[in-house]
Every structure is written in C-alpha cells, then in structure tokens.
Amino acid sequence: MKNCIIASTSTLYNGEYLDYLLPELQLHFKDCKTVLFIPFARPGGITHDEYTSKAAIVFAKINIVLKGIHTFENQKEAIQNAEGFFTGGGNTFLLVTQLYKNDLMNILAETVKKGTPYLGTSAGSNICGLTMQTTNDMPIIYPPSFQTLGLIPFNLNPHYLDPDDQSKHMGETRETRIKEFHAFNSLPVLGLREGSWLDVKGEKITLRGNLQARLFRQNQLPQELETGTDLSFLN
Amino acid sequence: MKNCIIASTSTLYNGEYLDYLLPELQLHFKDCKTVLFIPFARPGGITHDEYTSKAAIVFAKINIVLKGIHTFENQKEAIQNAEGFFTGGGNTFLLVTQLYKNDLMNILAETVKKGTPYLGTSAGSNICGLTMQTTNDMPIIYPPSFQTLGLIPFNLNPHYLDPDDQSKHMGETRETRIKEFHAFNSLPVLGLREGSWLDVKGEKITLRGNLQARLFRQNQLPQELETGTDLSFLN
C-alpha cells in the first residue's frame, strides 16, 4: 500500500529545514532505522554529499540514519533494499535527468507503489505527479522525458504562489502558467501552498497542513480545497 | 548584417501592447511593407489567428501588414521571403517545440543572420539566445531540443525580476535559478528587466531602454550594466 508524504516545501519562512514536518516524519518513518536520500536535485548546485549531510542532521533527531543514494555502487539495489525514501528539493529538471540517466525512475516508482514509505519536498514532490510539466523550475538541463513517478493521478505545483495584486511585473502569474498547461493537457493540477502536504495511504490522498490548496482542472474554474479534503475523487 | 530588437516584454505595466517600442519599431521595420508574425508561443493558449490579430492592430499603426506564419502553406518559403519577423511572447517550450516540429529553427536563424530585421518579445527573445535554458516558462510541452536561434552569444532571462526582500515565499529567486544554471552551464546570462531591450546590429549588441540589466557569469559575481552598454565583449 502506497505510503507517501508529498510536501510543497522543505522549509517554511522563518523555519528550519523540515522542522514543521518532523512530528509527521517520526510517524511516517517509525519502522525505519535508515532512509535512502535522493539528493539529485541539488539546490544551488551543492554536492550530493553536502546535501545529504544537511538532511541527515534533521533525520538524526528522530534517530534515523540518512544515506545518500550516490554512495551506493548499485543504486537500483539500494532502492530495492531501502526502508524508506526522501527525495529533497532543488531543480526538477536536474532530478529527473539524473533519475533517468541512472535508470532509476521505474524502479523507484515500483518500490514506492509496493509500500516503502516516501517523503518528497518541492522537486521531490513534483516527481510524484504524472509529469514534471507543472514545475516552477528553470530548464537548466534537458531530461530524456518529462514523465515522472505517477504516485498520484494528477500533477502538482509545489510552492504554489497566489497572484500579487500589487505587482507591476508583467510576467505570467502561476495561475496563468497552469492555465497554459491546460490549453494542451487535461491532467488536473494541484497548487500546493508552502506548509501544505499530501498524505497518501494506498489510493487515499488527503490534503494536510493548515492551508487550503488550489485545484486547477481543464475547462473549469479553479477551486479552493480545505485541509483534510480527500483527493481520491481525482482518480 | 544581423538587425534585431530583442525585448524583455511586449507590454509595460499600465501600458498597451508594444506601445513603448513603437517609435523603435517604426525605424527598425522602415523598409518593410509586411512583417511575418510567429505566433507559436500562444500566450494563454489563444489561437494563432487571435494572437496575430492582436499584434496586427499595432503594426497597422506604423503602416505594416502583419501576416501570421501559420497561414502559409510553405512556412520555410514564408521565412525566406519575409521582409521582417516578429516572434511574440507566451510559452517558450511551446514556441520552440513548434519551430522544431515545422523544421523552421535553422532556416529562421540563417535568415535573420543574413540581415532580415527581427523583433522578439519575451519568449520570442528567449529563443535569440543559444539555448532556452534560462526561460521562466512552465514546461507544458516537451521540445525536441533546448537549442535555440543563437543570434547572440549568450542566454537571456527576459522579465528579469529582482528578489523581493519582503517576500515570505521560499521558492527560488530568479537569481538563485540562474545560479543553478551556472552550476552546470558556462554561458553568460543577461537578466533583462521589463522595459529593456537589446539592439543587435551585426556583431554589436547594445543594451537599450531606461533600465540597467543584470549580467550573470559562471563563477563571477552578478554585474549591473548601464543602458547603452555594448555587450559585444561577451563574444
């Protein structure tokens, strides 16, 4: 049975890395002594080691040893043997490229679908949708495909940002960009604000955190969803 | 001799479509009775016809007939015979995909390099760089390549946006995103604020408009450039 936490962001304003999620993570990973970390999105271009160290400090607080997947000679085996997964944020194009390059996209999806607990934040959440086509990230590298893990039957827009009425900037708002996606794609898109996450248990998908999320569907008006909403109806 | 206007945006806050550029365009296209419009970026998913009509109204003010490339049976021939080009804004992934799908990327680059005057705004400017990898757009469609026209020897970030010190949003700033690009790519990137444009005459590239632009180079601190700066040193 799928068991995932899919979070908009790792870090809240004025917060520390993962701190707002820590009580959830303690439950989520309660049967894990180790968790496999996927640092491929590399925020700011830091090394895989640096990124793993940063995340490991937080996991140590809940007595879990975090191991970077890049330290394994056989990364497929590392995925198959993992007790839990955490895919950190950064650049989604980079993350997806590396998962394909190392031939890990399918095996990661299969393993998570069988029930190994998964945590994603930001880019690590983007890849839980059917495609990465509603990421906010810059295309700094060309991935072999935009298809992603498909752990949920729709797409995500993490770090969802409401339009700023005061802005004089003429670039597209997030809502406009998602509307452009829907001019050519029929998948629903969930705009997940910072502080929200999805709790996936089998086929049940629940919106968690204190905020509403904004659901965009092709040819429909956007809809605000309350926390606690069961999103399984998007199946 | 190359002859291009490469603008950050088509429209300024409180302005009308292309109005701030109109005196420039009158000079730029002074020898043109017609200009070929490339509407493939389709902002908001509008039709090619709708987009062409919108732009044609502006060009009519300077006595130029704007013709949408989509109305030509032989689009390559339309490019070769054009007196001038205007590629409008919208989604860069869509624009680039369509240019490749119709096998027009190379012939457009060749024709502009021979001297046919070109105007790009936003997505239509993004494609003037060597790659589209510093676009702000959402990857709503998968292009066969990120390579673009290469009319200038660096990349652009149109609609460049300075970090907002007041923001509580934890998504990456534009500067952070460009820094991530530079973790994996060595091309310079020019952040072109709304109201700025590049004037390209042969190999001379001049920053125009009232604003500074922000130049990002790998392993160097960002640099503010004054309007009037000759950017040929980036060759």
Automatic annotation (TrEMBL), chains A, B:
The answer to whether the entry has keyword Protease is yes
One Pfam family it belongs to: Peptidase_S51
Q: Which GO terms describe its biological process?
A: proteolysis
Q: Give GO MF terms, alphabetically.
A: serine-type peptidase activity
Q: Do the record's keywords include Signal? A: no
* Signal sequence annotation: none
Q: Which UniProt keywords apply?
A: Hydrolase, Protease, Serine protease
Q: Which domain of life is it from?
A: Bacteria
What family is it from?
Answer: Belongs to the peptidase S51 family.
Q: What is this protein called?
A: Dipeptidase E
The protein's organism comes out as: Flavobacterium aquicola
